[in-house]
Amino acid sequence: MAAEREKIYECEVKRRRVRAGGGYEAFWKVKTLVEALADLDTEFRCKDCGGAVKLLGRNGKAGTVPFVEHKDPSDAAFCSSGLLFRKSTDGREARLSPRPVMLRTGLPGVRPDTIALPAFVPAPIVVEGIEN
Fold first, then answer.
1. Using the 8-state DSSP alphabet, how is residue 26 labeled?
2. Please, which residues have CB within 8 angstroms of residue 63's CB and are 6 or more apart in sequence?
3. What superkingdom heads the lineage (predicted)?
4. Which residue has the higher pLDDT, 46 or 132?
5. pLDDT tens string 82-132
6. For residues 65 and 57, is the Cβ–Cβ distance under 8 A?
7. Do 16 and 39 touch, CB atoms closer than 8 A?
8. What is the dihedral of CA 73, 109, 47, 5, to 10 degrees?
């Protein structure tokens, strides 16, 4: 008898949008896996707990639908989308992942929503030894 696998067909994908002040900002958007693969998205996380997931079933065999499953068994055990959580009978409550997939800021250990951006201050212009 084959083991039952966790199959999640909807997740969050990393997207970028234009910032009002210029440049881009990253954000998470909920999509089905079929839409995400059609849009060539590459970064995924669980929509319920924010944990890391792995993409499976995308090779396009007839009758297969792409899906994701949790990489970390503890995420699957306490995520409301996880198979282990749905099969549990001990009355556990769903929780967020202790190690969620975060948007990259370029700064180690810093969440992007906690960064206070400084106001733009132009550098002084020096022309022939005189400051303007």
1. E
2. none
3. Bacteria
4. 46
5. 888 888 888 888 889 989 998 875 555 555 555 554 455 555 655 665 555
6. yes
7. no
8. -20
